[in-house]
Amino acid sequence: MEKKTLFDKIWDAHVVRSVPDGPDVFFIDKHFIHEVTSPVAFLNLEKRGIGVLYPERTIATPDHNVPTVDQDKTIKDKLSRMQVEKLRENCKKYGIELHDLGSAHHGIVHVIGPELGVTQPGMTIVCGDSHTSTHGAFGAIAFGIGTSEVEMVLATQCIMQTKAKKMRITVDGELGRGVTSKDIILYIISKISAAGATGYFVEYAGSAIQKLSMEARMTICNMSIEMGARGGLIAPDETTFNYLKGKQYTPKGADWEKALTYWKTLKTDEGAVFDKEYHFDGNDIEPMITYGTNPGMGIKVKDSIPTTEGMEGSNKASFMKSLDYMGFAPGEPIKGKKVDYVFVGSCTNGRIEDIRAVAGFVKGRQKASNITAWIVPGSREVEKMAHEEGLVKILEAAGFELRQPGCSACLAMNDDKIPAGKYAVSTSNRNFEGRQGPGARTLLASPLTVAAVAVTGEITDPRDVF
Amino acid sequence: MPYDKFNLLKSTVVPLSSENVDTDQIIPARFLKATEREGFGDNLFRDWRYDSEGQPKKDFVLNDPTYSGKILLAGKNFGSGSSREHAVWALYDYGFRCVVSSFFADIFKNNCLNIGVLPVTISPEFAETLFQAVEADPNTQVTVDLDKQTITLLSTGQSEQFDINIYKKENMKNGFDDIDYLLNIKVEIEEFASKR
Known about the structure:
Helix content of chain B: 25-40%
CATH topology of the largest domain in chain A: Aconitase, domain 3
Distance between the termini of chain A: 52 Å
Oligomer: heterodimer
Strand order of the largest sheet of chain B: 4-3-2-1-5-6-7
């Protein structure tokens, strides 16, 4: 029998037909939409005079541009308000489930999908957002699409896709003290570069991955796109099933047993072949931080920024442009650099575990006086739990400002912007120029490292202050 | 939506040699608040093109009058990051019909093909040749022939083949998009869906 990877199994089960010398017509089980990448798709449906084929397969929430204060009031920014209103209008018109601002399950689309149990093993999931790869943590094929494809999914529940090549990244061994799944993924990207997995779909495997919680797995799959991969996935196991059991949209009773039987088949066959494989040892991974303007420019917090030795031409020029933007010099240590802002949130690290980690660290301590500390829960559910568990009290006592759910300062479409020239250590996913506001300088790190930075006011290895 | 047919493009070239240009640079997130597709060209490369006062930055290539054309020659790993199709809308709206690079990010490349901007992947060596030729003479003309799948530097005749699958090639030549195809096989899709 043909040996298949997990990716093959799910992909092959969703091909409606293959176009000769062309892409596959690929069926989508679940489609998430938000206010920024969907309006033009709906507009085009209208222009064509067609409707939404399976509205029950699409779920909507406004997250990208929403304010993180006063969500019960009218949105002040006119353009943001128009986008959110357009989303409401479109959902109403086509009968699409909307988790609106202020409702019990409002939040970042990649946080609420898993929380509601919409995300399940074996599914194909897309959204007009590259961090859709997050859902791969459940053993689903999940990836970001453009607005033309959002339109295709609304109209036909399919997109035209060429099957990606297959990569497996195995991480074995034990993670040391102060090392989180964010450090694993920043480490991997620093090793294979921001374009190292372009053209591939990645399966993460190995004992260090299997030991992770669902939240931690989501952080890893979330950042697959930051090494160029279309998506990443992890075979579902007991951790996955325990997380999903009893969630609002997961099957119940006999249907649950039936689903479980199928989900247990979702793993790569022994002997299946990948186009590329990487192996990393968890023991080598330490707290990581980025120093440049793409997520591949990462180092251990204890290390120095690389020198330009061995670099030439456009490679060296791009490296220097990046360091100039950041205000850093080649070869200097990153530890001890002054920081202005910390941001805890986003679809990468805005889940309850992340907030617990930060609160656990700052309990009884104070943020440094030079730091502005924002904490933005990924969803209302996360926010509620943070209150119930007493985390909000701890964080506020430490000087953190708790905001309402949304994408917030991860991409700074709303007012949560880092001022030009300021340094932010952030749990988000992208350190691109201007990502957190025009001229803002972003360093990506784990929630633990961010917590340590908040307390000391400078780049700090969390293990030094535990 | 339907776009201009692409067959043969002969044009001067705008060179942008920076590597790893992400879609946040092509169109920053704060300019994604529109509910229609037009007008993004004004903010193409916004923060590289204008300073915080809105004044053009003289050293950026789009502000250099010696360079113009419908072809953008880009450094490697162009279009990484966010899946925002707005990045391609901005390029199209500005007037680019073709982006040439030795390496494209996946989603960006897909988005290009879906709205009629031709992504042409060439070897790093040929990319270097083109950059040198264009920087030496901004009037350098390049021809992109979709039918023959070739890109040619007219001054020297140096040429290279590029890949595109037949399905996408026919779409680009006719200005079709994938929805036209998908709507035609709706019955087959519905039958597939009913079994899921």
